[in-house]
Amino acid sequence: MFRFQSFDDDCTLEGEEGLVEEEDEIDQFNDDTFGAGAIDDDWQEEHTRLAELDERVRDPVDNTHSTNNVQPSSLPPPSSSSQLFPDVDGRAGGDLAESLTRLLLGSDPAIAGVGSASSDRSRLPQMLSAHPPHPSVLTGQPRLLLSYHQQQQQQQHLLHRGSAPLAQINSHSIWENNMGFSPVSVNAGLISQSEDKTLMSIIREVGLPNRPQTISREDGRDFSERVPPPRSSSPVIGSPPVRAVPIGTPPKQTLSQVLNQNNHPSAVHVRASVPLRYPPPFPERLSPNNLLSIAKSPLPHPPFPAGVNPVLSHIQRAQLLNSQVGHFPRAPPLLQGGVGGFRPFFGQPGPRVGPHCPPLPHAPIRHNTTHLHPQHRRMLNQRMQMQNRGDHVGSRGLGERKNRDPYSNLMTQREKEWVAKIQMMQLQSTDPYLDDYYYQNYYEKMEKRQERDRDTRKEHATKLITPQVAKLEHTYRPVQFAGSLGKLTVSSVNNPRKMIDAVVTSRTDDEEKREKQVWNKRRQILYTVEKMYSLLLEVQDFEKKFLQTPEHQREALLEQHKTHTLQLYNSLREKEWDDRVSDEQCLMIMSVRKGKRLISRLLPFLPQPQAAAVLMAIARNLPVLAKKDKQDQVLCWLVEPITTVIQSMSSTSLTDLLQELQASEGQLPLVLQNKFGVTLLYMILSEGERMQSSDPNCQLMDDNRWTELVFSVTRELLKVPSSLLSPPLFTPSNLLNLFSRYTDRQRLTLLQDKIQSVLLTTG
Amino acid sequence: MNYMPGTASLIEDIDKKHLVLLRDGRTLIGILRSIDQFANLVLHQTVERIHVGKKFGDIPRGIFVVRGENVVLLGEVDLDKECDQILQRVSIEEILEEQRTEQQAKQESERIKLQAVKERGLSIPKSDALDDF
């Protein structure tokens, strides 16, 4: 149940253009190299111009100039490029190559050789000269640049100012440490982390000062303050615009690295201070500076309205989902951590947990939107508190131990939250009854039990309001361009491309049935049973669903229910126009174990006449059924629903039923030999007796049928040897009364003995 | 900070010593450093522990990255309880020797069983699909 979250790109193109306008310098260069200025064919002139640029490269202030100036030959002919992409003219000319490299090489993790700078280098000139064909780059480009825009402005300026169009693999730098390096170190950091070999060679010549130690590959460095290599995780061509970071990417580390300097005073990061602002929505770009500043200056009140109801309504939930869950819950943990002085929350609860326990229940940390039952949450809080109390005692020793572990917190807070978020996303459900049936039922039962036991205490009668996540349709439609020939040629993990248009031809139901008939009749029966089962389950779940759907949808649900039940009835009929329950069909179904179970579950849902008809069919064919049931022995499942049916039967139908039971020759003895048969017989007789005794005017005695039938039963009972008489599931108490009406004393005692002896032999 | 209330998650287990049982029968003991949504594990200072009878031997292995689907179970090791053990620790060579002997004995018994079954005219199909050790 893994769902992409839609990412609201609220950045506009204006921002991008605004940015670009500031860098006139670069534009000028690019214009000269690619645009109008490059048409000039005079190589000598070009060379001198480029030589000037080259000198500037050596200037450490405006350092990070690109290598494109060093390799002019590898650049694509500008005119054709501007022709290909007419809509993005002068601006495009400048940024085109830049974005190309970014997107093609650095961005798409599936394309780029991750982390292998050398391959990037070798690929770069080839790629450029090969003239990347797809226009999708440009659609990707605004997005990419838009995401840039979201970055801190400061960094952006540095980026663009410091870099010339090409070779700077700027994609890496977006996802750089948001540590906000000071200007000098930023550039240095950027360069080093981009691992641009040719650029580096220049820099080495020049001798750039003070590359931060973080990247040095010294041995024995402390892992706690590591800076991970740049991860290629930029937006991808043609992917659905859900998020800038593909979901498989762990977040960059932020907080804990900063935090760990408490333990490792040798940290060398230089941090520029950033004005205080609230953390942006999860998961991106929560700069540790922001966090720190928030934390260190404790806010007088939580940054979100205190009245946030933990149980959100349906709409709020969907909104939350769409706007990236976790926005609210982020603040309280920060707050708590900040108030007490900054500590990594995890692993060092320490004595500071105490003052923070109370706020916890009010602002539950919730990365998920499926709510816990209030009882459940209460239990969890209790458990947590107990744990914390236990931790209190043990944490002193443990905490010290953890302090000394230099490899701790390799997994940063953000990464943990990221994993937790993914796991929570998997728990979201649109149909809690379907996904978490046992959990729901367990708590329902508990509620009922509590209500039963203590009616007075109202606090326990908390109802579980299970919110249902709105089912968001996330159909991925690959990027296509009007007028373009065919599909994207570039496909990657994130935007897979259909290679073959395979059409699925499914066989129709008729054909399927025919084939199965040819093969195996049993299979067909099972197939029918399966279909009926799914209908039955729908019908059975109807009640629950009914309670959950909102008012206006109930009509529709009711209709649906009716159709389902109708279909169920129809499936028992043999032919479409015949209204009676088909014997054959019933028999067929009941020849299978599953079918018997099905019938037993189905009977309660059938209306009286149909249920009676089913019962007749069963009675009529009891010997056959009994024989087929020899292996399974599950006919007795039917007893319970049949009891209900019998009790609601009229006297005539009852008589009919009894008659059916003895319809054919020698049927009754066989019936008596089967447990179910005997039980059924007794039930019928008992019901008849009940009718007679309770209502003296009952129609049972109107015709002699009943009496005659009972006579025959008694005769048979007496005839059949005790050994063959099968013990019933239960013996109704009023049987003797019945027999006493119809038989004389002698026979009565005989019958009594027989029944009891049978019971004794089994009991 | 309670990461995932009401659920089972490995996040709380990070930076703690764990014992991991793999599908191929190996037992690894290491400090759990990192996880992901598939329960792929990164174990640090891992030791492969071989158990034969009442003896066990440790082979230091370094860093392990275990793919989540290969894990049968894992659990945190109580550092206090780890000290007092009924099992006897032996050297690596010895435990490997013991393991070899055990394997041989097992194979031998299997062979005899197969033979006996064949003599009676039956056959036991070999189940290659099972994770067997």
Automatic annotation (TrEMBL), chain A:
<feature type="compositionally biased region" description="Low complexity">
    <location>
        <begin position="233"/>
        <end position="242"/>
    </location>
</feature>
<feature type="domain" description="mRNA decay factor PAT1">
    <location>
        <begin position="481"/>
        <end position="706"/>
    </location>
</feature>
<keyword id="KW-0963">Cytoplasm</keyword>
<dbReference type="GO" id="GO:0000290">
    <property type="term" value="P:deadenylation-dependent decapping of nuclear-transcribed mRNA"/>
</dbReference>
<feature type="region of interest" description="Disordered">
    <location>
        <begin position="1"/>
        <end position="92"/>
    </location>
</feature>
<dbReference type="GO" id="GO:0016607">
    <property type="term" value="C:nuclear speck"/>
</dbReference>
<feature type="compositionally biased region" description="Basic and acidic residues">
    <location>
        <begin position="45"/>
        <end position="62"/>
    </location>
</feature>
<keyword id="KW-0539">Nucleus</keyword>
<feature type="region of interest" description="Disordered">
    <location>
        <begin position="212"/>
        <end position="242"/>
    </location>
</feature>
<dbReference type="GO" id="GO:0016605">
    <property type="term" value="C:PML body"/>
</dbReference>
<dbReference type="GO" id="GO:0000932">
    <property type="term" value="C:P-body"/>
</dbReference>
<feature type="compositionally biased region" description="Acidic residues">
    <location>
        <begin position="7"/>
        <end position="30"/>
    </location>
</feature>
<dbReference type="GO" id="GO:0033962">
    <property type="term" value="P:P-body assembly"/>
</dbReference>
<protein>
    <recommendedName>
        <fullName>Protein PAT1 homolog 1</fullName>
    </recommendedName>
</protein>
<dbReference type="GO" id="GO:0003723">
    <property type="term" value="F:RNA binding"/>
</dbReference>
<dbReference type="Pfam" id="PF09770">
    <property type="entry name" value="PAT1"/>
</dbReference>
<dbReference type="InterPro" id="IPR039900">
    <property type="entry name" value="Pat1-like"/>
</dbReference>
<keyword id="KW-0694">RNA-binding</keyword>
<keyword id="KW-0597">Phosphoprotein</keyword>
<comment type="similarity">
    <text>Belongs to the PAT1 family.</text>
</comment>
<feature type="compositionally biased region" description="Basic and acidic residues">
    <location>
        <begin position="216"/>
        <end position="225"/>
    </location>
</feature>
<dbReference type="InterPro" id="IPR019167">
    <property type="entry name" value="PAT1_dom"/>
</dbReference>
TrEMBL record, chain B:
<dbReference type="GO" id="GO:1990904">
    <property type="term" value="C:ribonucleoprotein complex"/>
</dbReference>
<dbReference type="InterPro" id="IPR047575">
    <property type="entry name" value="Sm"/>
</dbReference>
<keyword id="KW-0963">Cytoplasm</keyword>
<keyword id="KW-0694">RNA-binding</keyword>
<comment type="subunit">
    <text>Interacts with SLBP; interaction with SLBP occurs when histone mRNA is being rapidly degraded during the S phase. LSm subunits form a heteromer with a donut shape.</text>
</comment>
<comment type="function">
    <text>Probably involved with other LSm subunits in the general process of degradation of mRNAs.</text>
</comment>
<keyword id="KW-0687">Ribonucleoprotein</keyword>
<keyword id="KW-0507">mRNA processing</keyword>
<dbReference type="GO" id="GO:1990726">
    <property type="term" value="C:Lsm1-7-Pat1 complex"/>
</dbReference>
<protein>
    <recommendedName>
        <fullName>U6 snRNA-associated Sm-like protein LSm1</fullName>
    </recommendedName>
</protein>
<keyword id="KW-0508">mRNA splicing</keyword>
<comment type="function">
    <text>Plays a role in the degradation of histone mRNAs, the only eukaryotic mRNAs that are not polyadenylated. Probably also part of an LSm subunits-containing complex involved in the general process of mRNA degradation.</text>
</comment>
<dbReference type="InterPro" id="IPR034104">
    <property type="entry name" value="Lsm1"/>
</dbReference>
<dbReference type="GO" id="GO:0006397">
    <property type="term" value="P:mRNA processing"/>
</dbReference>
<dbReference type="InterPro" id="IPR044642">
    <property type="entry name" value="PTHR15588"/>
</dbReference>
<dbReference type="GO" id="GO:0003729">
    <property type="term" value="F:mRNA binding"/>
</dbReference>
<dbReference type="InterPro" id="IPR001163">
    <property type="entry name" value="Sm_dom_euk/arc"/>
</dbReference>
<dbReference type="GO" id="GO:0000290">
    <property type="term" value="P:deadenylation-dependent decapping of nuclear-transcribed mRNA"/>
</dbReference>
<comment type="similarity">
    <text>Belongs to the snRNP Sm proteins family.</text>
</comment>
<dbReference type="Pfam" id="PF01423">
    <property type="entry name" value="LSM"/>
</dbReference>
<dbReference type="GO" id="GO:0000932">
    <property type="term" value="C:P-body"/>
</dbReference>
<keyword id="KW-0597">Phosphoprotein</keyword>
